[in-house]
Design a protein that fits this description.
The protein is mainly α. It is 74% helix and 0% strand. It has eleven helices and no strands. Helix 3 packs across helix 7 and helix 10 runs antiparallel to helix 11. The longest helix has 26 residues.
């Protein structure tokens, strides 16, 4: 399953605000993986410190989660962790007790969502493309079609086949390849433009 940046935006993730900070989409994906990887440890620590009423260490953990959540663009969740952090610093146990479970639920749901989508992207299999690479190929392919360069367009289509498009999008690439073979460049270009909207 691919990571849909439009879908991330729809659930409130500020993707554009952090991609430049993380040096592009691959850097952002790396940040998401690290965020997910730390989940179990963070949950164990929060649970332990909450039960033991160790508010000092509890505050350290939620402070870290505030920063890390904002780093991946989960601004609202970062704000929730900040509320717990401020409550921990002032020893406002009532606020911690009121919002701890709710915040943890939101954290868990986000991690579950992200894990489903980044699991298959831990490594790029041989012949497979990451999203940023596929975008670059699409741009070059559209240029080749504009210049009626069927040889270059054919090679780029083969490369683009290495990207794991969804089942409903894959046929568009196959049809575009067929159009290119028949020198139907406008029709092929239209389909490639539709694929470009996936990113």
């Amino acid at each position: 399953m691919n990571l849909d940046f439009k879908e991330l935006k729809a659930i409130g993730i500020d993707v554009e605000g952090v991609k430049s900070y993380t040096k592009g989409k691959e850097g952002y994906l790396s940040a998401l993986r690290m965020y997910c990887k730390a989940y179990e440890t963070n949950m164990e620590n929060i649970d332990t410190f909450f039960k033991e009423k160790d508010w000092e260490n509890y505050t350290i953990v939620v402070h870290s989660l505030k920063s890390n959540s904002r780093m991946i663009g989960a601004v609202d969740l970062g704000d929730e962790f900040e509320r717990l952090e401020m409550a921990g610093r002032s020893l406002n146990v009532d606020t911690i007790s009121k919002y701890n479970s709710e915040t943890i639920l939101h954290y868990t749901r986000l991690v579950e969502y992200l894990r489903k989508r980044v699991k298959a992207m831990k490594e790029a299999p041989v012949g497979r493309l990451f999203e940023e690479q596929a975008e670059q190929i699409i741009v070059a392919l559209l240029e080749a079609l504009d210049e009626f360069d069927d040889e270059q367009a054919g090679e780029l289509v083969k490369k683009l086949a290495g990207y794991p498009f969804s089942e409903d999008k894959r046929p568009l690439l196959d049809k575009a390849a067929a159009f290119i073979e028949d020198f139907m460049y406008d029709e092929a270009s239209e389909l490639i433009q539709q694929l470009r909207e996936c990113f």
